[in-house]
Write a structure and sequence with these properties.
about 180 residues, mainly alpha, Arc Repressor Mutant, subunit A, 2 domains, 3 strands, about 70% helix, elongated
Length: about 180
C-alpha cells in the first residue's frame, strides 16, 4: 500500500468510526483517535495523534483523558522516550461490554428507580382518591413501564456481564400480552 493510499485508508476508517461513536452518543473525536491508535500498530504520542487527526493539542488531551476513563485506550511507555504514548484497547467486545455496563446499565437502573417512585406516588394518590379512574389507568401503565424497565435491566446486565442478549424475557410485554407476564 502506498503512503497516500495508507493515509487515505486510515482517514476513511477514522471518519467511519467517528460517525459510529457519534451515533451512540459519544464525541466523534473519540472514534477518530481510537481508530488511529487501533490501526497504527504502534503506540503514538499525543503530538502524533494531533498531527494525524488535525485536532488541537487541547482537544487531543481532553479526548485522551476521556478515553482513558472509558478504558478504550491505554498508556504505553517507550524505552528512552519521556513522552506519554497510547495504544488502543483491542478487545472490542470487552470494550463494548464495559461501556454498556458503565453507561447503559446505570441509565436503565435509574429508570427502574424512577418508575418505582412514580408508581408509589400514584398509589398514594389512589389511597386519597380511590374512585379516580385516571389514577387507575396511570398506575396500570406505570406498572407496565416498570416491568419493561426491569426486564431491560436484566437484558442490559446480561449483555454487559456475560455477553449474552436474549429477547425471551420481553416476549409479549410490548403488546400487553397478559399470558407473557
Amino acid at each position: 500500500m502506498t503512503g497516500d493510499a495508507h493515509t487515505r485508508a486510515i482517514a476513511l476508517a477514522a471518519e467511519t468510526m467517528s460517525e459510529i461513536v457519534a451515533f451512540w452518543g459519544f464525541k466523534p473525536s473519540l472514534g477518530r483517535i481510537w481508530s488511529l491508535l487501533y490501526l497504527a500498530g504502534r503506540p503514538l504520542s499525543a503530538d502524533e495523534i494531533a498531527e494525524h487527526t488535525g485536532m488541537s493539542a487541547g482537544a487531543v488531551s481532553m479526548a485522551i483523558n476521556e478515553m482513558l476513563q472509558w478504558e478504550i485506550i491505554v498508556r504505553a511507555s517507550l524505552p528512552g522516550d519521556r513522552k506519554r504514548h497510547y495504544t488502543a484497547e483491542t478487545d472490542v467486545l470487552g470494550m463494548i461490554r464495559r461501556i454498556i455496563e458503565q453507561r447503559e446499565l446505570r441509565m436503565v437502573g435509574r429508570a427502574v428507580g424512577r418508575f418505582e417512585e412514580a408508581l408509589a406516588l400514584v398509589e398514594q394518590a389512589r389511597l386519597e382518591r380511590p374512585d379516580d379512574h385516571e389514577l387507575v389507568v396511570v398506575a396500570e401503565r406505570l406498572r407496565g413501564l416498570l416491568v419493561l424497565a426491569r426486564v431491560g435491566y436484566g437484558l442490559v446486565d446480561g449483555l454487559a456481564r456475560r455477553g449474552i442478549l436474549s429477547l425471551l424475557p420481553i416476549r409479549g410485554q410490548l403488546a400487553g400480552d397478559a399470558s407473557a407476564k
